[in-house]
Amino acid sequence: MRFTKMHGCGNDYVYVDCFHEKMPRDPAALSRAVSDRHFGIGSDGLILICPSDKADARMRMFNADGSEAEMCGNGIRCVAKYVYDHGIARNTRLNVETGRGALTLDLELQGGKVKRVRVDMGQPILQASDIPTTLPGNPPINILAPVDGVPLQLTCVSMGNPHAVAFVDEITDKLVHGIGPKIEKHPVFPRRTNVEFVKVNRLDDARMRVWERGSGETLACGTGACASAVAGVLTGKLARIVTMHLLGGDLELHWSEGDNHVYMTGPAVEVFSGDWPDS
Q1: Is residue 156 annotated as a catalytic residue, yes or no?
Q2: How many helices and strands (H and E) does the chain possess?
Q3: Would residue 9 show up in a list of annotated catalytic residues for this protein?
Q4: Which of 101, 147, 159, 208 is the most buried (most CB within 10 A)?
Q5: pLDDT averaged per 10 residues in sequence order, the chain, 279 residues
Q6: pTM for the model
Q7: Which secondary structure element, helix H or strand E, spans residue 252, and what is its range?
Q8: Residue 67 to residues 27, 30, 153, 159, Cα–Cα distance (Å)
Q9: Which entry of 9, 72, 78, 156 is annotated as an active-site residue?
Q10: Catalytic site residue from 9, 156, 221, 226
């Protein structure tokens, strides 16, 4: 099986071109195998680039633990780069089908290849039952975290996948690695949740680390950055246009008052390609 390793701000996945390769028989098991950073290729998960009857391509995304997720903001930018650079569709505006519907992506080219991508991430989902969470509020805003008596306040948003955002004075390993997994798996999040820890520098500038559902800490999370930007506006901590600094790079975010959509702009990088044994 031919694969391509790609990343967006260090959030790396193994991509399989299912236009030309057979669909894996067991994508969950394959994701666990290829994601292993010692015995596999090494990645935050597996993304399948598939034909679609309603868009230029369809993205299916599997976390490192094999669980399938609805959406991946960094992953979809790389899907767009692959689709354009490898000639599947040669338009600088693409549509990609995801678990939250078809999204529109605008490509920035350099030397005939995609350098950056602007993604229309759609409207944030703010109804608690649709996020989903049983925490109170639509959406829950500044709700005391239900773990270990830690004085964290959570604001919950979905960008097609669930997020719990905590604004903190300092982002520490204890928070990310100690509290993050406990929030991820807490019963108030019936599908688990991604957890973002955000430090505000200015109204238009913030830093974020993420504990991703099914993958642990990653260098970046596009949907998490979008959810954090929305949470920042809802709590009065951030402006509608903000630069989010992640461990793997920066994302530009805009929650538009005009159409209520969140727009995310960031890089997409192809690292290398190879062959994975069918066995």
Answers
A1: no
A2: 5, 18
A3: no
A4: 159
A5: 97 98 96 97 98 98 96 97 98 96 97 98 98 97 89 96 97 97 97 98 98 96 98 98 98 98 98 91
A6: 0.93
A7: strand 249-255
A8: 9, 11, 27, 18
A9: 72
A10: 221
